[in-house]
């Protein structure tokens, strides 16, 4: 007779967060990307979907091109094209964010891995069996003073990934019921890419060639409820046939944890290492607030802040140093064993920063309708700290993984990293 009275009440101590990092054992973390994983979902409700390309150019500059699709309830979705370029030598920054018109996916004759608008086209291309089986071509007439012509390719050996196989691979769920979640978050990666093209900015043509990574993300919930903190890192080096180390980490709010309200503050970190041009391992780890993490776990994926100090501009305590750690089983058949890596970067203090590109006032950048809801509901003032510095990745690699080395190897490269403070 329970149907007469509605559903049974939810246990207040039931888990309200179900992290992808806890659903798969270490040897099943590397989930291959399927066609649907690269398609635009354009879901309704409160959903933010992004497609982002990060590349480090031959002249040392940092480049980011991003498409953002924001849905909010019954309002028509807002789509933005965001561009950022930073030259660490000259300190020159170029930034544009444009609300685009007539966004379409799929464009005529293509599938939903491609999209177009009046201001840009992003075209997916597939060449199965080749050394570069997948690519995106980005053409944009973003503003009167900015034009983009870029091809971003993925090599066959640097496979795209999500955490875990299948249609539910990659998803972390919010709420007590994973079949009818209150929200979700997912990230899918190309861990190492190569860009080739031209950026025309203020009439000057800039060669845009260099390595990077690509990520597709969907936040299926109001962004101020998904996480109170984010950490992201993207290390790239051309040494030893191509190396990358990437991580994405979120920390949940108090309402989302394994024992209901008040058990939040859960850290979920996912990442990967590309070594010798090959995807070497995928890492994922859940750190519960009431449990000390293992000192040397079989699978580790961690970002940590050190020596924080108050930034009066934002009122957040920001780190002077960040450490990143990876560990997991090799996914390269001819190089079995455990792959480990660590990286430490000095980003200075608020008074004397090192490599700081910008402190991004998030509410100033997101669409007006989204901003109104987020700021009204949460009362928060989120900021993203963006840094770009030389860095050294220290890897312990099993024999056969690197073409010319094994054991402990130090790899010089470049690191772009972000720390986001939401509340």
Automatic annotation (TrEMBL):
Keywords: Cytoplasm. It comes from the Eukaryota. InterPro entries: Ceramide-binding_SVF1, Svf1-like_C, Svf1-like_N. GO terms for cellular component: cytoplasm. Residues 221-423 form the Svf1-like C-terminal domain. GO terms for biological process: response to oxidative stress. Residues 48-218 form the Svf1-like N-terminal domain. Pfam families: Svf1, Svf1_C. It is found in: Cytoplasm. Belongs to the SVF1 family. This is Survival factor 1. The lineage of its organism: Eukaryota, Fungi, Dikarya, Basidiomycota, Agaricomycotina.
């Amino acid at each position: 007779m329970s149907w007469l009275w509605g559903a049974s009440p939810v246990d207040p101590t039931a888990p309200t967060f179900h992290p992808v990092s806890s659903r798969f054992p270490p040897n099943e973390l590397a989930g291959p990307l399927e066609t649907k994983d690269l398609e635009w979902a354009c879901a309704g409700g409160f959903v933010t979907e992004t497609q982002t390309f990060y590349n480090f150019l031959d002249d040392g500059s940092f480049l980011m091109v991003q498409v953002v699709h924001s849905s909010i309830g019954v309002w028509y979705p807002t789509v933005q094209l965001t561009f950022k370029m930073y030259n660490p030598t000259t300190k020159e920054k170029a930034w544009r964010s444009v609300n685009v018109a007539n966004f379409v996916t799929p464009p005529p004759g293509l599938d939903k891995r491609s999209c177009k608008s009046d201001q840009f086209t992003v075209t997916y291309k597939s060449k199965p069996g080749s050394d570069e089986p997948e690519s995106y071509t980005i053409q944009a007439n973003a503003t009167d003073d900015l034009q983009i012509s870029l091809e971003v390719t993925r090599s066959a050996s640097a496979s795209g990934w999500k955490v875990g196989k299948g249609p539910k691979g990659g998803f972390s769920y919010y709420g007590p019921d994973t079949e009818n979640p209150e929200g979700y978050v997912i990230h899918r990666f190309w861990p190492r890419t190569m860009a080739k093209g031209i950026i025309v900015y203020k009439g000057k043509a800039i060669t845009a060639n260099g390595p990077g990574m690509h990520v597709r993300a969907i936040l299926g919930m109001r962004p101020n409820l998904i996480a109170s903190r984010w950490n992201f890192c993207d290390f790239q080096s051309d040494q030893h046939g191509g190396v990358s180390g990437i991580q994405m980490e979120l920390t949940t709010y108090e309402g989302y944890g394994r024992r209901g309200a008040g058990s939040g503050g859960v850290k979920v970190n996912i990442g990967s290492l590309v070594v010798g041009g090959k995807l070497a391992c995928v890492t994922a780890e859940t750190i519960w607030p009431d449990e000390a993490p293992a000192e040397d776990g079989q699978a580790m994926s961690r970002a940590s802040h050190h020596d924080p100090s108050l930034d009066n501009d934002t009122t957040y305590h920001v780190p002077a140093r960040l450490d990143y750690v990876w560990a997991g089983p090799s996914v390269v058949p001819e190089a079995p064993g455990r792959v480990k890596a660590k990286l430490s970067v000095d980003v200075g203090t608020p008074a004397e920063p090192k490599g700081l590109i910008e402190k991004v006032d998030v509410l100033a950048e997101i669409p007006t309708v989204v901003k109104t809801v987020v700021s009204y509901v949460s009362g928060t003032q989120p900021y993203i700290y963006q840094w770009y510095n030389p860095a050294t990745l220290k890897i312990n690699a099993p024999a056969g993984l690197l073409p010319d080395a094994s054991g402990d190897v130090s790899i010089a490269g470049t690191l772009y990293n972000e720390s986001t403070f939401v509340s």
